[in-house]
Amino acid sequence: MDRKIRVLVAKPGLDGHDRGAKVIARALRDDGMEVIYTGLRQTPEQIVQAAIQEDVDVVALSILSGAHNHLFPRVTELLKEKGAEDVLVIGGGVIPEADYGFLMSKGIAAVFGPGTPTKATIDFIREHVRQK
Amino acid sequence: MRALRGRGGRAHLIGVTGPPGSGKSTLCDKLIAALRKRGARVGVLAVDPSSPFTGGAILGDRLRMQSHATDEGVFIRSLASRGRLGGLSRATQAAARALDAAGYDFVLIETVGVGQSEVDIVKIADTVVLVSVPGLGDDIQVIKAGVMEIGDVFVVNKADRDGADRVVRELRSMLEMAATLRRNAVPASVDTLAGRTSALSAGKSGAAGFGAAKPGAVSGPGMTAPRPAREWSAEELAHHLTENANSVTVANDAELPPILKTVAETGEGVEELVEAVLAHRAGLAAAGLLEARRLEGIRAEMRSLIAFRLLDALEGGEGRAREDALAKAVLAGEEDVYGAAEALFAALSKGGRT
Lengths: 132, 354
Ligand SMILES: Nc1nc2c(ncn2[C@@H]2O[C@H](COP(=O)(O)OP(=O)(O)O)[C@@H](O)[C@H]2O)c(=O)[nH]1
Ligand SMILES: [Mg+2]
Known about the structure:
The structure holds 2 protein chains of 2 kinds.
Chain A: E1 6-10, H1 19-30, E2 34-37, H2 44-53, E3 58-63, H3 68-81, E4 88-93, H4 100-105, E5 110-112, H5 118-128
Parallel strand pairs in A: 1-2, 1-3, 3-4, 4-5
Helix pairs in contact in A: 1-5, 2-3
Chain B: E1 12-18, H1 24-37, E2 42-49, E3 57-59, E4 74-81, H2 90-101, E5 106-112, H3 116-121, E6 127-132, H4 145-148, E7 153-156, H5 164-183, H6 191-204, H7 234-243, E8 259-261, H8 270-286, H9 289-315, H10 317-331, H11 337-351
Helix pairs in contact in B: 1-8, 5-7, 6-8, 10-11
């Protein structure tokens, strides 16, 4: 059976907007991926538990609240703790470019700023996901 | 999968099915809580349809069960139903087995019930909860006899809305009609259904009142054909009943599956639902039907695996070419379709694909 790429789209942090997350979720679905959508205000613990139970290839984090430097590394850390460091973690939302380097040093594979065409995200996932 | 053999068969599989938006995921969320309170470990398989065009899917059921996201005793897995036969994909069956093997006491299987998929769920669920809601228009969504019959426990969710009592009444009269029909002059193939309903009453009121369906009575040929050969429409049922008015014994309450009102959003009625599910399980077990039902499920699973194999073989290059050639022969009048199918089947089973 052909295994579809599975992506968890999650919104950590306290901001209440998930329009961007929904746009990317639909784009990934339309590209043939299976997207698990867990909604707003997820803690890193919830995100990682979901990623493991859902056996995803990718975790796509979207954030607007500015807490990315704290929340994103926490996700990669917990994944590692659970032996799931092979999951590709990417980030998006409102993130200053100055923070990209720090996030990538913490295991975030790529950061997509506002206005990135969804195609860029899709291509990145297809290229980097480690097919199980 | 093979490694899992042996441990299986302990988890109670609960199918939760009904139309989109009827509150199945919300109900599952509350069922998880109620079962956890009893100390059980709970697995959930949430099956959503995938896009027929891209095969992609947005799986959002988990969103409603987030309150259990970090509970180690709860395991939620979302699946896209990309199976070719019905809504319940092969992956669901495998996942249910895996959760069972991993020691979960209950496995909830949420599927959107639209036609055939409702019937498919029954193949692996021990107890099927059929969810309906008020306000979906006049002809209630579950009225088709074939769909009604897979329900072991009926739920009218969104009971906070107008019209819930009416849906309950409509369900009730449909179920009464079906049960009355079963009691009177229905072919032997419906034995299983009678057995299932009686098992329910056994669960409800202890072993007493457990009438027609003694264990032996349902282990006959009926078990291999759990569905009536043909579904009866409401009109046919009504007609049949009027025709046989003199000899008809009306079904009594104890023979009907329970119909419960719930408000999934607040959790109202959920305790009763859990009780009804447990009573159904107890009834099945007391009547020795749990195993029979599971055997039937395994048989059905083997059949669908064989069907998949055959379809795969057909779609492979050589099978396809043979199929085309035979179809052309039928069209040209050189062969009839029965002979052609026979020849194709023989070729496929000889093909010995592994
Ligand atoms: N009024 C009311 N709304 C409900 C109830 N249960 C669920 N809902 C709402 O119905 C919508 C669909 O619920 P969901 O659980 O996703 O339905 P599903 O598609 O069957 O899984 C959501 O907005 C729920 O909040 C209920 O008992 N009463
Ligand atoms: Mg749902």
